[in-house]
Amino acid sequence: MEITNEQQDFLGITNKDKLSAASKRALKWPTDLSNDWFFEYQVEDLKGDLAYEEGVVRRDPSAIIKVDGKYFVWYTRSVGPTDGFAGNIEEDKVFPWDRCDLWYATSYDGITWKEEGLAVKRGEKGSYDDRSVFTPEIMQHDGKFYLCYQTVKSPYTVRVKEEIALAWSDSPYGPWTKSEEPILKPADNGVWKGETQSRFAVEKKGDFDSHKVHDPCIIPYKNKFYLYYKGEQMGEAITFGGRQIRHGVAIADNPKGPYIKSEYNPISNSGHEICVWPYKGGISSLITTDGPEKNTLQWSPDGINFEIKSVVKGAPHAIGLNRYADPDKHPTHILRWGLTHEYMNDDYQYIRRFTTWKMVHHTAKGERGEE
Known about the structure:
4% of the residues lie in helices and 39% in strands. It has helices at 5-11, 21-27, and strands spanning 40-45, 47-48, 56-59, 65-67, 70-79, 101-107, 112-120, 132-141, 144-152, 163-169, 177-178, 191-192, 202-204, 212-221, 224-232, 238-239, 242-243, 245-252, 260-261, 276-279, 282-287, 296-300, 307-311, 320-321, 337-343, 349-357. It has 2 helices and 26 strands. By secondary structure, the protein is mainly β.
């Protein structure tokens, strides 16, 4: 391999003629190793109605939008403890996101929030969303408001298929009109093995999203609408990167669909909750929690082909981005503050605020870090 003196000095390589596997990989890194895409973060409690409340689950904050000087956020809300799958699944609550509705809150400063109430509720018995609606994301476009979110139909079994639906309104206060059917469903090409309620027993795993489609986010992009989502596969494995979770995208000409899955799916080999935003003509994606490329910031020039731009120490969970920020100002400007959720325990989660900052140098106590 051709190695310049500058590369040798920057990477600290002892001998150009004796390269370890690690040094060879490092020499294939991009030439621009700036820290523009790197950040650190902290999390703090909110005030008002979104402060922790015993017995209430508030989680999965949407992006934050600003209308008439006021911030709006939507989120998953339920009450009571989680019982799991061992009991009576017709009556019990199997997950914190089970038996949920979508609520919303407002704030003038992003710190003290007022809970405004119900936005979208579960459907009537027998409908595709009769068990729970959860994990919302908001899109404001051409004077209208669109909420995409996950749905599940009762009974909530281990092998149940989860889908994505849409609601729309002329006002952030509602009322909301729900789609008559899901706008996105899991791939129908996996085969369960036997009748036992085990999501790991399969004869054929199928596509990366053969079991569930999760965490939707719609972005207007290239005069179309890109629906990014998390896929869970039937027979999901644990690999050297952890859980086998990947992301996909479906594209439509209209916000209400129909959404057609990309032939290039999956578009990530890692990740968990979807966190994407436009940047410099492309799409940025924060990949967290699962897979060999977890805890990375990635960018794609076309919304499909993503490359790693930085590796971060960690990131807030289930990020609600501040869509009011200018995403083109800096690669991580839209991440400077937003909302996240944290687990108080296995039963109850609550919404908090995060802030991030660019790290220029690693300095010791009392050391000056200027260049």
